[in-house]
Amino acid sequence: MASLALATAGLGVAALAGLAWALQQADARMQRDVAVKSRAVAYTTDAVTIERGRRLYLDAGCVHCHGADGRGQEFASGAGLRLVAPNLTPAGAVARYQPEDWNSAIRHGVKPNGRPVLAMPSERYHGWSMDELSALVSYLRQLPPAPGEAAVVQWPLVQRVRYGLGWDTDAAARIDHRRPPARSASASAMASMTTPDGLALPCSDCGPVWPITWSAAQHDTANATGLGQPMRMHASQR
Ligand code: HEC
User: Fold this and answer.
1) What is the DSSP string of 191-228?
2) Phi-psi bin for 72: left (phi > 0), alpha (psi -120 to 50), beta?
3) Which pLDDT score is estimated for 109?
4) Which of 173, 67, 189, 174 is nearest to 131 (CA)?
5) What is the pTM of this model?
6) Of all protein residues, whose CA lies closest to atom 38 belonging to ligand 1?
7) What's the mean per-residue pLDDT of the chain?
8) Any keyword Mitochondrion (predicted)?
């Protein structure tokens, strides 16, 4: 009897140690420095280019997370999960961005401080041309500077463990950073992000959080109940 109790206690201790290790790995991964050779994005005030950038902002799905006015918003929440995309107007997170910073954040998934983004699908934008990036960034830069949201990436415990164990990865880990930008208009930038089942974005685009693709009906159930579902995509973003 005593040996059984001892064995159980031993297993419990081992499990706790494993959990602590995975969480510590997750922190290390989030804090890691991702070295990319970034290219400078050209700024323009040309009206036609800016209009192209506005279309890209909508079609590439930036709007679903960063909001119609670019001021940032909470775009997913539930059961320990909270994701807020930051303010992209000139008064926001990008106020001090240099021309290279735009490229590394959007195409490489790396913030100016060298840390990986966690909940933004930069791998979808990695194949863009520098012209497309220039149009998009020029559009963002001419938005009226306005107060907005700061980024929040809060993952449930199970997600942090999965990330720590390397079962899920961030965009910077999924990108081949040596691949050059497209030379001309890229298919990924032209394609609307609407999935065949009519969703604005697959759930997996909220980061490696829930790497499953839900049907439209499942999304609706999640939205209707809000409870008992791992994640709720806010109705306004769909
Ligand atoms: C699925 C939601 C989502 C989509 C789609 C998305 N973003 Fe983001 N974005 C985020 C989140 C969340 C952050 C905060 C950083 C992180 O993920 O850890 C962020 C951060 C950023 C940053 C700032 C990085 C920093 O802290 O310096 C920029 C710039 C940005 N996004 C631009 C864009 C643009 C442009 C697009 C479209 C091409 C886009 N995002 C699409 C969610 C998204």
Assistant:
1) S----TTS-SS-GGGGSSS------HHHHHHHHHH-SS
2) left
3) 97
4) 189
5) 0.84
6) 62
7) 83
8) no
> Which pLDDT does position 190 carry in this prediction?
58
pLDDT digits (tens, 9 = 90+) for 117-152: 999 999 999 999 999 999 999 999 999 999 999 999
54, 95, 126, 85 alpha-carbon torsion, rounded to 10°: -80
Domain ranges of the chain: 19-237
From 102, 92, 46, select the one nearest 70 (Cα to Cα).
92
Q: Which of ligand 1's atoms lies nearest the C-alpha of 64?
A: 5
206 lines ligand 1 (CB under 6 A): yes
The answer, yes or no, to whether any atom of ligand 1 lies below 6 A from the CB of 106, is yes
Atom of ligand 1 nearest to the CA of 75: 2
Sign, CA dihedral 175-75-62-214, equals positive
Strand pairing partners for 77?
82, 232
If you measure from the C-alpha of residue 13 to the centroid of ligand 1, how many angstroms do you get, rounded to a whole number? Answer: 39
User: What tokens were used for 31?
Assistant: 């804090």
pLDDT at 108 over 90: yes
Looking up tokens 């994640």 gives 231
